[in-house]
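== Protein entry: sequence and backbone fold ==
=== Local backbone shapes as whole numbers ===
==== Amino acids and backbone structure tokens ====
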Amino acid sequence: MIGVLLIHGFTGGPHELEPLVATLRKETDWLIDVPTLPGHGLDLDLTPYRYEDWIMTAESAYHQLKEKVDTLYLVGFSMGGMIAGYLAGKFGADKLVMLSPSRKYLNLIKLTKEVSLLLKDQLLGELEENFTYKLYHHKRGKIPMKAYLEFVKCMKFTEPYLKEITSPTLVLQGIEDGLVPYQTTHALDKEIPVDIDVIYYADSKHMICLGDDQDVVVGSVYDYLLRQKSETCELTGLEIE
């Protein structure tokens, strides 16, 4: 039996991975688990929690799923990508997929561009149609500074485990990502000791599973997880889409 543990990003929830989860559940008989990290989800309440709570929840989900399956795949988005990398490095995984992983974060140039578009749409009365607004407006006023500090701690905690990863690894990154610089993948390539496969998406932003390229992104992950180990090992080098 195959199991897939998917981990969402900071201030997010399972909805960030929903198109991929829906495809895996429809097309396979795999066990799929998408836990909500403490304080996350559509009803944000991050104040009571520390990064250790997020790590413990991910570890618990990993071990519970591992007991039920013979093969375990890890998929993580943004902060969840780093937590998935931590799990793969510490406990192992048959495959690892990192979506917009936040190894390096907060691309200020791209973020400024996103804010400018929000202001423009507000002036034009088209704010409700802005993709970024739809994804983030419910978070307004609900992210305390303490939570950002816990995020930074989480990144510092998970980073050393990247060098312990031995799993076949796929990284998907949007060039137009407003939070994570796409050059992040260069750092990952140096830190993860196995050859990683990288696909860049020229028009994708941070929410890579929910943007215009979502069908291609989901298809890429699905195809990668379906490949046999021998086929996966042949996928080396850099691929640009």
